[in-house]
Amino acid sequence: MLQTPAAVAQNPPSTPSQAQQAAQGPITVTDVLGRKVTLKAPAKRVILTQARHLPVMALLTPDPVSILAGWSDEFRTSFSREYQNYLERFPAIAKVPLVARHTADSFSVEQAMALRPDLVVLTARFAGGTDRESVENSLMMKRFAAAGIPVLVVDFFVKPLENTVPSLKALGEAIGQPQRTAEFIDFYQSHMKGVADRLKDLPPSSHPPVLVHAHAGSTDCCNSPGQGTFNEMISYAGGHNIGADVLKTQTGKLSFEYINSRNPQVYIATGTGSGKRASQGLHIGTGVTEGDARSSLQAVIDGNRLTALSAVRNGNAHGIWHAFNDSPLHVVFIEALAGWIHPDRVDEQSARKTLDEVNRRFLTVPLSGTYLVDLKKKP
């Protein structure tokens, strides 16, 4: 459970004055592909090709909407509750022009250029590549380069434990917020180190089998992370992802029989709570009460015939907001995992306290709702 009041972040950290930012002159940053990206001045007209990264921007600047020149419709549609909260705080968000739905094939380079951006933020995959060479040779990147429009490649998803800090550093410097960004990076690294220090002498044999049931209830049983991303987070938190043993892709489906044969000791369902509530889906996230989240978690477990798992019988079944993924706030996800997997080493309440601190120190529009829930209510 996490109930956070909307007024919790009324006093965000101070930021450099416009005069100080202007005095910086040209800025050169290095993105996650090692590309040197030069801007004439801190970016004031940014295009987010993947609007899900607006909350990332919000960690680094108190008014992310004021520097949006254009974006995809992803945040407005797939994160509708979060969008409404931003709309209430920043009414101008309703007028931000659209340049795409939420995929690269719907992205219009012409529309983006017409908005006169001084920075385009995207991921390598959105640009059509996987590494520096393939990205720079993509038609999209060549067209932006020919127009003299700087493009910054970030990554909070493919290699989150490796690329989060350099992505934040480059983005914060590019928008003229190096001090605030450094504060958040220090916060992020200290919490990541805290988990690592508590688990550093843990032998691999003490990593219990874990099932992360991704987008629980929205499909037949049971979607699971395979390689990369979530698997790295589960390992970091001292668990063994049973999906990685059979799935060679980032995600896939595990059979009911396989799950029962592995009998995971920890069960974690994920969901976003976006759109209308599915009768058997995990209802969690912005605007959701603890009771609603817990009852939907029970419905997911019952509906997928998972009640016989040791994790469920022993009270080690939980739900978590899927959107902590593809965000620096995966630190909350990792702390929650570590607390559920190794409660003898990591305080189960630490993730909730971390999110409270994020709301208080960094987010002008706090996350308000239930983002973590236990199947069995704690005394």
UniProtKB/TrEMBL annotation:
Residues 1-24 are annotated as: Disordered. InterPro entries: ABC_Transporter_SBP (IPR050902), ABC_transptr_periplasmic_BD (IPR002491). SUPFAM superfamilies: Helical backbone' metal receptor. It comes from the Bacteria. Residues 9-24 have a biased composition (Low complexity). Residues 45-345 form the Fe/B12 periplasmic-binding domain. Pfam families: Peripla_BP_2 (PF01497). This is ABC transporter substrate-binding protein.
